[in-house]
């Protein structure tokens, strides 16, 4: 699958591109079954919510599971990603499964992934790309990823300061538990939304959302709907943008140090026996 020049232009302008129905229902079913099986296993990349039971994320699904190992090498993802990164060879920086079960308050604050990639993982530039694969239908009710179109042009934005954070937390205790390292402050979010607005790309299970790691995004809680929302989030990086060594590297299952370029597998790879 190749992106058209129109699609490449849209991605460049908006910092994201939605590809509806990329994967067939049979392929989605295979991935969903493997995601459920992974939730029952124990390994370091499995992150639970504060209740100690509900799975929030599985880091490194592609290192633990054959189907996700194949998904990250699927030509429907790798070929468009290579185009977005200037026809460069790419490697897998990270892959996670993000779970938002029905009637749960799991959320992600506003942030840029490039802050993590550049500041924590040592990427020289933000020239990486992310593919989100919808394992469930994503609709207006179950907490779609929210994106500020065009915000990738800002480059790295300063996250919330300690002072802003302590004020916000005094005001709303719940923020303390929702804090992520590079969360943006409310004044910053307000200014950015005035400039860029917010979109919530939605689509059937099997759709793919491509986005630029500097595109500001976040994700509200799925507290009201009876619909689960599981997505696979895969970050690819160009072999021209290999990270420099950092002092306290994040674990391999969060930020890979295997920079070998990947070869796309065959189109039907998700349906082959494991
Ligand atoms: O799950 C989502 O909708 C957003 C996740 C996210 O922000 C991330 O993985 O960086």
From TrEMBL:
Keywords: Dioxygenase, Oxidoreductase. It comes from Crinalium epipsammum PCC 9333. GO terms for molecular function: 2-oxoglutarate-dependent dioxygenase activity; iron ion binding. PANTHER family: ECTOINE DIOXYGENASE, PHYTANOYL-COA DIOXYGENASE DOMAIN CONTAINING 1. It comes from the Bacteria. This is Phytanoyl-CoA dioxygenase.
């Amino acid at each position: 699958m190749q992106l058209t020049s129109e699609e490449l232009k849209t991605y460049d302008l908006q910092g994201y591109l939605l590809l509806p129905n990329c994967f067939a229902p049979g392929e989605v079913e295979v991935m969903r079954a493997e995601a459920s099986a992974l939730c029952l296993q124990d390994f370091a990349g499995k992150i639970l919510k504060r209740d100690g039971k509900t799975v929030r994320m599985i880091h490194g699904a592609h290192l633990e599971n054959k189907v996700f190992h194949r998904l990250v090498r699927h030509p429907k993802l790798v070929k468009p990603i290579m185009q977005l990164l200037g026809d460069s060879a790419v490697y897998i920086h990270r892959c996670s499964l993000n779970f938002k079960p029905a009637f749960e308050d799991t959320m992600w604050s506003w942030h840029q992934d490039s802050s993590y990639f550049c500041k924590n993982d040592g990427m020289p530039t933000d020239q990486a790309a992310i593919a989100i694969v919808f394992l469930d239908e994503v609709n207006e009710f179950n907490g779609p990823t929210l994106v500020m179109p065009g915000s990738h042009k800002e480059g790295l934005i300063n996250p919330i300061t300690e002072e802003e954070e302590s004020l916000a937390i005094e005001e709303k205790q719940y923020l303390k538990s929702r804090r992520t390292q590079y969360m943006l402050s409310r004044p910053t979010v307000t200014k950015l939304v005035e400039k860029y607005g917010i979109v919530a790309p939605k689509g059937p299970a099997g759709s793919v959302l491509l986005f630029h790691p500097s595109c500001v995004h976040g994700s509200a809680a799925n507290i009201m709907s009876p619909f689960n929302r599981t997505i696979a989030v895969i970050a690819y990086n160009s072999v021209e943008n290999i990270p420099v060594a950092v002092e306290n590297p994040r674990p391999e299952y969060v930020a890979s140090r295997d920079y070998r370029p990947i070869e796309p597998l065959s189109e039907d790879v998700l349906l082959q026996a494991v």
